[in-house]
Design a protein that fits this description.
Layout: H1 2-28, H2 35-49, E1 54-58, H3 64-93, H4 100-114, E2 119-123
Antiparallel strand pairs: 1-2
Helix pairs in contact: 1-2, 3-4
Keywords: Membrane, Transmembrane, Transmembrane helix
Transmembrane segments: 6-35, 83-102
InterPro entries: Inner_membrane_protein, UCP028777, YccF
Protein backbone atom coordinates (compact mmCIF):
# COMPACT_ATOMS: atom_id res chain seq x y z
CA UNK A 1 0.00 0.00 0.00
CA UNK A 2 2.93 2.34 0.74
CA UNK A 3 4.25 1.86 -2.79
CA UNK A 4 0.90 2.68 -4.37
CA UNK A 5 0.52 5.74 -2.15
CA UNK A 6 4.01 6.95 -3.09
CA UNK A 7 3.36 6.47 -6.81
CA UNK A 8 0.10 8.43 -6.62
CA UNK A 9 1.87 11.06 -4.49
CA UNK A 10 4.58 11.54 -7.13
CA UNK A 11 2.08 11.76 -9.97
CA UNK A 12 0.00 14.41 -8.23
CA UNK A 13 2.67 16.87 -7.17
CA UNK A 14 5.14 15.09 -4.92
CA UNK A 15 7.90 15.24 -7.51
CA UNK A 16 7.44 18.99 -7.91
CA UNK A 17 7.60 19.51 -4.14
CA UNK A 18 10.79 17.44 -3.91
CA UNK A 19 12.38 19.39 -6.77
CA UNK A 20 11.52 22.65 -5.01
CA UNK A 21 13.24 21.41 -1.85
CA UNK A 22 16.35 20.40 -3.84
CA UNK A 23 16.51 23.79 -5.59
CA UNK A 24 16.10 25.51 -2.23
CA UNK A 25 18.84 23.32 -0.79
CA UNK A 26 21.25 24.21 -3.59
CA UNK A 27 20.60 27.93 -3.12
CA UNK A 28 21.08 27.63 0.65
CA UNK A 29 24.39 25.80 0.20
CA UNK A 30 25.92 28.65 -1.81
CA UNK A 31 27.28 30.14 1.41
CA UNK A 32 29.09 28.31 4.21
CA UNK A 33 26.55 29.57 6.73
CA UNK A 34 23.68 28.08 4.70
CA UNK A 35 25.10 24.55 4.44
CA UNK A 36 23.34 23.17 7.57
CA UNK A 37 20.05 24.63 6.32
CA UNK A 38 20.62 23.12 2.87
CA UNK A 39 21.21 19.70 4.42
CA UNK A 40 17.92 19.97 6.30
CA UNK A 41 16.21 20.98 3.08
CA UNK A 42 17.56 17.82 1.46
CA UNK A 43 16.08 15.85 4.35
CA UNK A 44 12.73 17.43 3.57
CA UNK A 45 13.19 16.62 -0.14
CA UNK A 46 13.73 12.94 0.68
CA UNK A 47 10.55 12.74 2.69
CA UNK A 48 8.65 14.84 0.14
CA UNK A 49 9.57 12.42 -2.64
CA UNK A 50 8.54 9.20 -0.82
CA UNK A 51 6.44 10.24 2.22
CA UNK A 52 4.51 7.01 2.76
CA UNK A 53 6.47 4.66 5.00
CA UNK A 54 8.75 7.33 6.48
CA UNK A 55 8.69 8.98 9.86
CA UNK A 56 10.72 11.78 11.46
CA UNK A 57 11.89 11.05 15.01
CA UNK A 58 14.08 12.93 17.45
CA UNK A 59 17.75 12.10 17.09
CA UNK A 60 19.49 10.76 20.16
CA UNK A 61 22.77 12.40 19.11
CA UNK A 62 21.44 15.93 18.57
CA UNK A 63 22.69 18.80 20.68
CA UNK A 64 19.59 20.33 22.22
CA UNK A 65 20.58 23.99 22.48
CA UNK A 66 22.18 24.15 19.03
CA UNK A 67 19.19 22.34 17.46
CA UNK A 68 16.82 24.79 19.12
CA UNK A 69 18.80 27.79 17.89
CA UNK A 70 19.01 26.40 14.34
CA UNK A 71 15.26 25.62 14.35
CA UNK A 72 14.46 29.21 15.35
CA UNK A 73 16.69 30.60 12.59
CA UNK A 74 15.24 28.05 10.11
CA UNK A 75 11.68 29.04 10.95
CA UNK A 76 12.25 32.71 10.15
CA UNK A 77 14.56 32.21 7.17
CA UNK A 78 12.60 29.65 5.19
CA UNK A 79 10.50 27.40 7.35
CA UNK A 80 7.42 29.58 7.70
CA UNK A 81 6.50 29.64 3.98
CA UNK A 82 7.04 25.87 3.77
CA UNK A 83 4.89 25.25 6.84
CA UNK A 84 2.08 27.44 5.49
CA UNK A 85 2.24 25.76 2.08
CA UNK A 86 1.93 22.29 3.59
CA UNK A 87 -0.89 23.49 5.85
CA UNK A 88 -2.80 24.83 2.84
CA UNK A 89 -2.30 21.69 0.76
CA UNK A 90 -3.16 19.47 3.72
CA UNK A 91 -6.44 21.30 4.27
CA UNK A 92 -7.26 21.16 0.55
CA UNK A 93 -6.67 17.41 0.46
CA UNK A 94 -8.90 16.95 3.52
CA UNK A 95 -11.89 18.23 1.55
CA UNK A 96 -12.33 14.83 -0.09
CA UNK A 97 -12.27 11.44 1.60
CA UNK A 98 -9.85 10.07 -0.99
CA UNK A 99 -7.40 12.92 -0.28
CA UNK A 100 -7.18 12.37 3.49
CA UNK A 101 -4.04 10.14 3.35
CA UNK A 102 -2.32 12.76 1.20
CA UNK A 103 -3.40 15.50 3.60
CA UNK A 104 -1.88 13.46 6.42
CA UNK A 105 1.42 13.36 4.52
CA UNK A 106 1.35 17.14 4.09
CA UNK A 107 0.76 17.56 7.82
CA UNK A 108 3.68 15.19 8.50
CA UNK A 109 5.87 17.29 6.20
CA UNK A 110 4.58 20.43 7.90
CA UNK A 111 5.73 19.19 11.31
CA UNK A 112 9.13 18.29 9.90
CA UNK A 113 9.43 21.65 8.10
CA UNK A 114 8.57 23.45 11.35
CA UNK A 115 11.63 22.08 13.17
CA UNK A 116 13.90 19.84 11.06
CA UNK A 117 17.04 20.13 13.19
CA UNK A 118 17.52 17.38 15.74
CA UNK A 119 15.38 14.90 13.81
CA UNK A 120 16.21 11.93 11.62
CA UNK A 121 14.02 10.28 9.00
CA UNK A 122 13.48 6.55 9.42
CA UNK A 123 11.61 3.96 7.37
CA UNK A 124 8.64 2.38 9.12
CA UNK A 125 7.23 -1.02 8.31
Amino acid sequence: MKTLGNIIWILFGGFVIAIEYVIGSITLMITIVGIPFGIQSLKLAEVALWPFGKKAVHSSTSSGCLSLLMNVIWFFVGGLPIVLTHLLFGLLFYITIIGIPFGNQHFKLMKLAFSPFGKVVINIK
